[in-house]
Structures are given as structure tokens and as C-alpha cells.
Specification:
By secondary structure, the chain is an alpha+beta fold. It is built from eleven helices and twelve strands.
Length: 360
């Protein structure tokens, strides 16, 4: 008890019937609770006056089959709001035959949450700064080209030079091309910074893989690249946005194409791994040095002279919207493999056996 009285967290020990066995003196300073010299034998609902906290503790204890449950609650203390994390876990005294009791730990996480929020804002600002610098770099060349050709047109008119249709069209075509390029930069930027409007529903990954492979195969073959499909004909249905996942797959395949100078092989596969479906796209390209792997998801990071460097940033964003993950392995001179990991919905686990049989 001396140890529990010396720490900043509140501790309450209750039995299965929510009778208090012990509560340290810090507890009533953290939650709305009547101060007593001793809480032993008092029913928790007689002294704890916050219905939300009481409901959480009651539901957790009555469930019985728990390891650790926690939730955060906000209270007003004077003119300040404080956030308290309430953690409930069972406690069994091995030295006695008494029934299991429950520990309720109260932790003031107000400052911790504020520090986390500041860190997120700082990271967001750093990301936006990087993206702004990237946009400035990307639009610099199109603007320069437009400026040069506008100056040429202006000088021609100032000198009363007669422009032929061919010359005028050449200048205008350059302006039109650079405007299109600027528009693409803006569209890519907005897609990267705006929340993605995903419409997630049960869908079939094999259908999406077929559609994407059918779409890119003619272009790959024209460039001397072989496309291999190693995914099974049947997989569990997943909660996905078809268009967003197609965009992610196309971005990765486009990167794989650019990694191969003349010819090579791109392999599109999929498999069930525990509670997930893992989609993999492998290439036999130049690979990515290990020191650069940690940067490939950063906005506007690219190793190519062309391209915005937003492709994998968008893929990362799409996977987070699907509560999935993305992993990249690469060997310089041998190629790169990108894995997209999608969680299997609880109701679809029955389809796993069918998927395995379909792949045999």
C-alpha cells in the first residue's frame, strides 16, 4: 500500500461484485469520487459518480473473460479539461484461495495526449512543407517553358513579324502541353493531400487483379516485359474500394515498369497469410538501395528524372484507408517486391478453405 500511495496514478481494487477492497488517496483527485478515509467494503457505485466510467468498469468486470481493457474519459477540473485513462485488468492472489479481484488503474494522460497532438501537428507541417517544396520544384519547369514561348510570341508581334501558322501553332502547342502538365501536377497534389473518399464494400480481389493485369499487359508486352500471374482463382472477399485499390496496383506496376530499362518480368501474386490476404507485385528491375527504402513513401521523393514522386505516397494512403499495410523488399540489381496486406473480414474466414482448394 505504501508503494501505491507514493505514485501519481489512482488504484482501486474491487471484487467481482464491485465492492472496493482498496483505493489509494490519489483516486478521488482524478475522477468524480467521494473522499473517504477508507473505502474498504464500500460499493463502487456509491462513491464513483461518473456514469460513463462506472458503466465501463461494470461491463468489463461482468464480462469476466478479460485480460486488459482500457478507455479514456475527459473531466473538467476547475477551468481545465483533464483526460484520464481507465484501465481494468484481473488480479489473482496466488498466496490465497480468494476469487479473482480486479484492478482499476487511473492515469492522467492529458499532457501525454497534448504532446502527441503537438508531434502530429509538427509531422503534418513538415510533410506539408516537403510537399510545398515539391510542388514548387515541379511547376518551375512548365512555367519557365511557358514564359519563354510567350516572350517569343510577344517579340514577334512587337516587331510586326508575320507569324506563319506553323510557327504560331508550335508556340501554342507548347503552351497547351505545359498547361496540361501543370494541371496534372495540381491534380496529383490534391489527391495526395485530400482525404480519400473511399467507398468500401465486399469485393473480390481476384476480379480486380484480372482487370488490372488485362489493362497493363499490352503495354508491358510492347515494352518487352513479361507479365506473370501467380494468384489463385479464388480468394476470400475483402472490404475494399475497387477504384482505389486499382489505383494502388497501377501505381506499383507503373513503378515496376520504370525500374526495367528494356525487358524483364513483372509477377502479380496473391496468397492467404493467417488473417490477411497478401497481394504481391515483383519486378526484375534495378532495385532500390537500402538507404533509400525508408524514403520511398515520402511525398515527391523519386529517383527518376521524370514523375512527381507521389505514386507510392498515394498507395500508402490508400492502404491506410483500408486498415491494411504495405511492405517493400528490394535487392539492388535483382528487383523489388511490394506487398499489399488486406485484413480478411470476420465473416469471410469460411471462404479460406475454398480458396486454398482453388489454389491447389
Amino acid at each position: 500500500e505504501a508503494t501505491l500511495e507514493s505514485i501519481e496514478d489512482g488504484f482501486i481494487l474491487v471484487d467481482r461484485h464491485l465492492r472496493i477492497l482498496y483505493a489509494n488517496s490519489v483516486t478521488p483527485t482524478l475522477v468524480p469520487m467521494i473522499r473517504l478515509k477508507s473505502y474498504e467494503g464500500v460499493a463502487l457505485d456509491e462513491v464513483l459518480h461518473d456514469p460513463d466510467v462506472l458503466s465501463f468498469i461494470t461491463t468489463t468486470v461482468e464480462c469476466g473473460e478479460i485480460e486488459v481493457e482500457e478507455e479514456e474519459f475527459t473531466f473538467r477540473k476547475g477551468d481545465q479539461l483533464r483526460t484520464i485513462r481507465v484501465t481494468v485488468y484481473p488480479y489473482k492472489d496466488r498466496s490465497s484461495a480468494k476469487e479473482t479481484s480486479f484492478v482499476i488503474r487511473l492515469t492522467d494522460v492529458t499532457e501525454y495526449n497534448r504532446a502527441e497532438a503537438r508531434l502530429r501537428r509538427s509531422e503534418s507541417l513538415a510533410s506539408m512543407t516537403t510537399m510545398a517544396a515539391g510542388v514548387a520544384h515541379e511547376i518551375k519547369n512548365p512555367l519557365a517553358a511557358m514564359g519563354i514561348h510567350l516572350q517569343l510570341l510577344k517579340k514577334a508581334y512587337e516587331r510586326n513579324e508575320s507569324l506563319t501558322y506553323v510557327d504560331a501553332k508550335r508556340y501554342i502547342d507548347v503552351l497547351d502541353e505545359e498547361i496540361t502538365r501543370l494541371n496534372a501536377i495540381v491534380v496529383d497534389f490534391l489527391f495526395a493531400v485530400r482525404p480519400i473518399d473511399v467507398r468500401i464494400r465486399l469485393g473480390r480481389m481476384t476480379t480486380l487483379l484480372d482487370q488490372v493485369c488485362d489493362f497493363v499487359e499490352p503495354e508491358l508486352n510492347a515494352g518487352g516485359i513479361v507479365l506473370q500471374r501467380t494468384y489463385p482463382s479464388t480468394l476470400p472477399r475483402l472490404m475494399i474500394d475497387d477504384n482505389a485499390v486499382k489505383q494502388a496496383l497501377l501505381n506499383i506496376i507503373k513503378n515496376a515498369m520504370n525500374a526495367m530499362k528494356e525487358s524483364g518480368t513483372i509477377t502479380v501474386g496473391a496468397k492467404i497469410d493467417s488473417n490477411n490476404v497478401e497481394v504481391s507485385i515483383s519486378d526484375t528491375g534495378i532495385g532500390i538501395p537500402e538507404e533509400r527504402l525508408g524514403k520511398i513513401f515520402e511525398p515527391y521523393y523519386t529517383t527518376r528524372s521524370s514523375g512527381t514522386g507521389l505514386g507510392l505516397t498515394v498507395v500508402y494512403k490508400i492502404m491506410k484507408e483500408h486498415e491494411g499495410d504495405i511492405q517493400v523488399n528490394s535487392v539492388v540489381g535483382a528487383g523489388t517486391t511490394v506487398r499489399l496486406i488486406f485484413p480478411i473480414p470476420a465473416g469471410e474466414h469460411l471462404a479460406i478453405e475454398e480458396a486454398i482448394e482453388g489454389g491447389e
